[in-house]
Amino acid sequence: MTDIRALTKEELEAELAAMGEKRFRAGQIYQWLHRHMADSFDEMSNLPLALRESLKERFSLTTLQAVKELTSRLDGTKKFLFRLPDGNVIESVLMKYRHGNSVCISSQVGCRMGCRFCASTLDGLVRGLTASEMLEQIYQIRRITGERVDSVVVMGSGEPLDNYDALVRFIRLATDKEGQNISNRGITVSTCGLVPQMYRLAGEGLSITLALSLHASDDETRRELMPIANKYGLSEVLAACDAYFRKTGRRISYEYSLVRGVNDTPEKARALGELLAGRGGHVNLIPVNPVKERSFARSGREEILAFKEILERYGINTTIRREMGRDIDGACGQLRRSYLESLEF
Ligand code: SAH
What we know:
The chain is an alpha/beta fold.
């Protein structure tokens, strides 16, 4: 069956025309799906009963089920564990900032990129999410909390550019004026650096922010932390970033997770400064969240501040990621993992 929530307005119009329905019905249905975030065809009260019944026969309507919801007592961050129609579980996070609410969504069940410090990748990739499963994380959070969603970061479990078509479809639907109308500028896609897809994304005519998980200023250290670095060297990845910036005018956000004794020394900071000076990007320093299966430790406060200061001497705009929801397994893939482990008993 066709997944109706993953269709664009034009595709939905074509489907309805094939059913012999009037064009305006497609508009009504689209609004139910993407503005009112309907959970069932029965909610679509302005459609004739017969039409609702034939929609049920023809289409599936992807809806996620919240199986767990945790609220941080430190900062109000909410973490959700959702069950997908096939029984897999994923996690999503709602973060409240002074400038608005942001949702962090997953793009895959698991991941196959193998970054050493990341919990999402420990069991490998199960599958990519559909566009509707990505949208539904936002819709369910809105329905459950009643909160607005101003921005979306695709920084949960999975490598979004390893699920390219579904990702781009998701972005077009999420930014559609007749749907949630989230601004392009409010969407950030984070990648470990899949170079061909970065060039492709630059050509989509979207003005979203691209974040690159850099985590090292030399190839050797990057290869230690991220297997993908064996495939694409730093010079190739940074050239793709430069091309993205030239083509879209959107500055790259470089993510750098600080791992004690591995990539957090003043020497590494200077090398990073050399590498990024003049590129016009922004660096986001993330104190690594230790994952119990791995032995990486986070850098101390002093090292982090010293690292930032060195980058700033190179004229690089640097922020330290404010940690949200530390008390609720805030980091990528950790909640899903603890949930799966608890089922194993
Ligand atoms: N696959 C994408 C998005 C996933 S995660 C990517 O690689 O960018 C979002 C960010 O969190 C990435 O920069 C990732 O490297 C980082 N990350 C993952 N696990 C982490 C951990 N335990 N501590 C700190 N940062 C982590």
